[in-house]
Write a structure and sequence with these properties.
9 strands, 7 helices, Ribosomal Protein S5, domain 2, alpha+beta
C-alpha cells in the first residue's frame, strides 16, 4: 500500500513548471526550467532536437543529523550523481526530444525532507513538472504539439521480515532484506528496474510478487498525476 501521496503545483513560480511531491513524510520539490539552446556536445555531434537533464540534492535539513551541502564538500557525492542520472534517464523516456526543439529542459529535484523513497518521489514529481513546463510552452505558442508522450512514475518495493512492502519509509528500507526501485510508464512498461538483496537472496516467486505490488503502486501514482494535471 502506498503512503499518502500528494502534489502541490506552482511551488516555484520562477520555474516553467513545479510541484512539491510528498510520499508520506518524504517531500521533494521538483522544478522544470526551459533554456533556449542545447549543450555544446549536441551541436558538435550534429544531434538534432532538444535535451533534458536533471540535478538532485538533499538539503542539509532534510535529514538528521544535518547533511553537508555538496558545495561545502567541493563535489557531488556518488549517491546524488547516481540518482540524478536515473532521474534524467527516466524522464527522457517520456518525452520526444525532437518535438521539444532546440531547447534544454532542466529538472531540479531538491529533497526537503527524507523518509525513504526520495529518488522515486523525485521521478514521480518531476514527471508532473515536465508536463507543466511543456504545457506552458504550448500556451506561449512556442510549441504546436506537446513533446510529452507518456507519464512516468516510480516506486520502491522491498521485502521486510519476509513480507513484500510497497513504498518503503526509512525504517522499512533500513531493515529490508531485498530492495527494489521500479520506474514505469503509464502503460506499465518498464523503464528501469533496480533490485538487490541486502545480505539476502530472492527467487522468481518473490520477484514476481514485488513486481505485481510495484505495478499496482505505479498505476495509482499515474492516476494521481493525471488528477493534478487536469485540475
Amino acid at each position: 500500500m502506498l503512503r499518502e501521496v500528494s502534489f502541490q503545483k506552482g511551488i516555484a513560480p520562477q520555474s516553467s513548471g513545479s510541484v512539491l511531491v510528498s510520499f508520506g513524510n518524504t517531500q521533494v520539490l521538483c522544478a522544470a526550467s526551459i533554456e533556449e539552446g542545447v549543450p555544446r556536445w549536441m551541436k558538435e555531434q550534429g544531434v538534432t532536437g532538444g535535451w533534458l537533464t536533471a540535478e538532485y540534492s538533499m538539503l542539509p535539513y532534510s535529514t538528521a543529523p544535518r547533511k553537508s551541502r555538496d558545495s561545502t564538500r567541493g563535489k557531488i557525492d556518488g549517491r546524488s550523481t547516481e540518482i540524478q542520472r536515473l532521474i534524467g534517464r527516466s524522464l527522457r523516456a517520456g518525452i520526444d526530444l525532437e518535438l521539444l526543439g532546440s531547447r534544454t529542459l532542466w529538472i531540479d529535484c531538491d529533497v526537503l525532507q527524507a523518509d525513504g523513497g526520495t529518488r522515486t518521489a523525485a521521478i514521480t514529481g518531476a514527471s508532473v513538472a515536465v508536463s507543466l513546463a511543456c504545457n506552458r510552452l504550448l500556451k506561449e505558442g512556442k510549441l504546436t504539439k506537446s513533446p510529452v508522450v507518456r507519464q512516468i512514475a516510480a516506486v520502491s518495493v522491498g521485502v521486510v521480515s519476509s513480507r513484500v512492502l510497497l513504498d518503503l519509509d526509512y525504517l522499512e528500507d533500513r531493515d529490508a532484506e531485498v530492495d527494489l526501485n521500479l520506474v514505469m510508464t503509464g502503460d506499465l512498461e518498464f523503464i528501469e528496474l533496480q533490485a538487490s538483496g541486502e545480505e539476502s537472496v530472492f527467487g522468481n516467486d518473490q520477484l514476481a510478487e514485488m513486481l505485481d505490488s510495484g505495478r499496482k503502486g505505479i498505476s495509482s501514482l499515474i492516476a494521481k498525476q493525471h488528477e493534478i494535471l487536469s485540475s
